[in-house]
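Exam prep: given the inputs below (a chain plus iron/sulfur cluster), describe the expected output before reading on.
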Amino acid sequence: MIERRHTRQVAVGSVKIGGGAPIAVQSMTNTDTRDSAATLAQITRLAEAGCEIVRVAIPHADALPGFGEICSASPLPVVADIHFDHRLAIEATRLGAAKLRINPGNIGSIDRVDAVIEAAGEAGIPVRIGVNAGSLAAEYEDRDWPLAEKLFASAVSFCEHIAGRGFEDLVVSAKASSVNATVDSYRLLANALPYPLHIGVTEAGTSLSGTVKSSVGLGILLAEGIGDTLRVSLTADPAEEVTVGWEILAALDIRRRSPELVSCPTCGRCEVDMVPIAQEVERRLRTMRTPVKVAVMGCAVNGPGEARDADVGIASGKGVGLLFRHGQVIRKVPEAEIVEALMAEVEALDRELSQGAK
Ligand code: SF4
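Solution:
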């Protein structure tokens, strides 16, 4: 059991962050915000994938009308992501933003940061102070310090200034594209600040490399109890970010949204064409919400043990699969019917558990 760091709590619309709330999974739209229909369609798809808070960029004033329409119709709380122009942030508070994300290091002056904070206070919404390696507080930019310390010092100086003005509905992030720098900066923040932390490795890369970097970085932090909301940054469909975020939480047994799949890596002993079977089972399990454990195993070495240990499992033999449910063999099925037979059993269990929960 991971002991989580205690923090203050903020509300982003209906979703709580920090203070013991479940770690919320976020993503960010990559549509043109001026096109509210396309952005809302993407937000709906993200919500279906399990996204709980969505961030939308407001790059310029032309995006403000679309942003307002998005906030009015979004199924998820919408965070306005603003760089450079503080007036956009102030306007976003009036258009229904559930939270702002700013980097005070690129807003221009501390007076402008103060104006944004005042608008957020009037709207009753929290603000994420999102420091990145690319835009640190000016006084730390040229110091000969490790990046993590510069990120940390920048975030702390902004938070102290804002808290000094009486505003503490803050969420903090200090991301780098380096896993080590990200982990170090968050460890420092977790020791120094009472605010919930939004964790992520920024600009982590494409599907494979970004998933690995995010899993390592976020995995280390989450295992240490650090992190109250997360975003996996991938150069890919944002829905993939959500899937990976949930997989990271599930791998650490922190939160689970779909069944757990145990599948063998296959080897020379494998007696069925296991990879497409496991992929198809995984695809179908993603739409289910019951926390069951499903095993798909390729031969008799570890197969029966894992299949028996799962709620529903298949241990394959030569061109066949032995179907298990709760440790008991139910029947033998031909290879071509493994997926259907396994999923029929999982769905039956899913129905029973859902009825039992009513
Ligand atoms: S279960 Fe069998 S096929 Fe799968 S990896 Fe283990 S030994 Fe190989």
